[in-house]
Design brief:
The protein is α/β, with parallel strands linked by helices and about 190 residues long. About 35% of the residues lie in helices and about 20% in strands. It contains seven helices and eleven strands. The chain has a seven-stranded mixed beta sheet, with helices on both faces. Strands 3-4 form a two-stranded antiparallel ribbon. It has a two-stranded parallel ribbon with strand order 8-9. A hairpin with a 5-residue loop joins strand 3 and strand 4. The protein is globular.
């Protein structure tokens, strides 16, 4: 079973945090929501409280298949500036393992040099944070072990892309069908 850690902070965009958790848990992925605030309850960008599964000081991400960063402000800035988050993301990337961020979240990739020479997407207006990247403007961009998403409306596409990478195409397609995503994409 794949193992994922998602870092959250006060000001995290709740949709970008919770939809990937929901999709990946439906796929059987072990996903741990990690608070970086010193508190188990984290208040999101729109006042929703999320109860984290773990505190960043208490975990080791060496067993992670994927580390995720949601967007939202000031959440993405808080995560980008957190030394333990930065250390974990850089170590994961340097090991050739998956790192993913959506919306304003990819700013951490730029600040760590991870976006250099990569194709990336992000929330429009945050392209300058993707140092050395080719900005795609796509809903989701995958370049090697770096996955980026554009923003809130891209969250399902982003989550299914992560699901496919971790669990295979058949699992992702079954979830899309079961969650009526294909119907949505057909425009009916």
């Amino acid at each position: 079973m794949a193992k994922v850690y998602e870092f959250i902070s006060n000001g995290t965009e709740e949709v970008e945090a919770l939809i990937p958790v929901d999709v990946l848990r439906r796929a059987g992925v072990e996903i741990i929501i990690v608070s970086t605030t010193g508190q188990q309850i984290v208040t999101t960008a729109h006042g929703v409280n999320i109860v984290a599964d773990a505190m960043i000081e208490d975990i080791c991400t060496d067993d992670a298949d994927l580390l995720m960063i949601p967007g939202g402000l000031p959440g993405a800035e808080n995560l980008c500036n957190h030394p333990l988050v930065r250390e974990a993301i850089k170590k994961q990337y340097d090991a050739g393992k998956l790192v993913a961020a959506i919306c304003a979240g990819p700013m951490i990739f730029g600040s760590l040099g991870i976006s250099e020479g990569k194709r990336c997407t992000c929330y429009p207006g945050f392209e300058d944070y993707l140092t050395g990247a080719t900005y795609t403007g796509e809903l989701v961009t995958v370049d090697g072990n770096v996955i980026t998403g554009e923003g809130p409306a891209a969250t399902f596409c982003y989550a299914y892309t992560l699901c496919e990478m971790l669990c295979g195409k058949a699992t992702a397609e079954a979830l899309k069908e079961g969650m009526i995503y294909n119907h949505l994409m057909e425009g009916k």
